[in-house]
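Lab notebook page, bench 4
Experiment: in silico fold of construct C2
Operator: M.H.
Input chain length: 244 residues
Purpose: comparison with the prior construct
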Amino acid sequence: MTTALYETLKPYLEFLHLQITQEEFNSLEKMRFEMLSDSMYKTFSTIFEPEEYALKHVLDSLLPLVFSKEALKGKRVVDLGTGGGFPALPLAIMLPDSKIMAVDSRKKSADFVSKIAEKLNLNNLEVLQCRIEDFGQDFLYREQFDIVVSRALSSLSVLLEFSMPLLKKGGQAIFYKGPKLDEEVSEAVNSMKIFGITPENMSIKRFSSEQLPYERNFFIARRMKSVPKKYPRRPGIAAAKPLC
């Protein structure tokens, strides 16, 4: 394996003890090629340089595997607000026994991710164009997922309202966050109370500057109590009037 993707990721994967097979690398490399060859890619990202793509799209998408790989294996996972397919596409490559769903309200996003998934033969990835608020009120999806992930969608308070209704009891939400996570946690006290998030069923995972060339934090929470039927509220309300 001598591709730019491999050479960029290798030291970080070794440091994080994250193993990737030759076949998985080949699929990740093909994903990069297919994405960058598609004119729609620029709609979702300004990252074209190989090293930056490897770190900010591929490695970043795979970070939950560092601390929750066993929890993700063979499970039903949904990526809320998938955008250009991150982290849904890399996770689908790395978790062939899991059922991954990528949800986005934009038709362009759903079409793009579907196209890339088809070219990669990712039969374990389903793509849905839908407002997240409507998705969470649909009986086909409410309380049906083991894991909810979201990478760059909204504030912590809004994410809790979006994700908790989708999780089975004991299911886990994994939110990608940046340097302002502690501030978001402070602002989401009321939201956490509503959805039963306590120190006993939540945790924060921080990646240091020694582990990554950028700051990345994760907020992780389990749904342990029933979610009132009124959540998530109608489209647009969670963002306009957050519960915090």
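Observations: The mean pLDDT is 94. The domain at 64-240 is CATH 3.40.50.150 (Rossmann fold).
Next step: discuss at group meeting.
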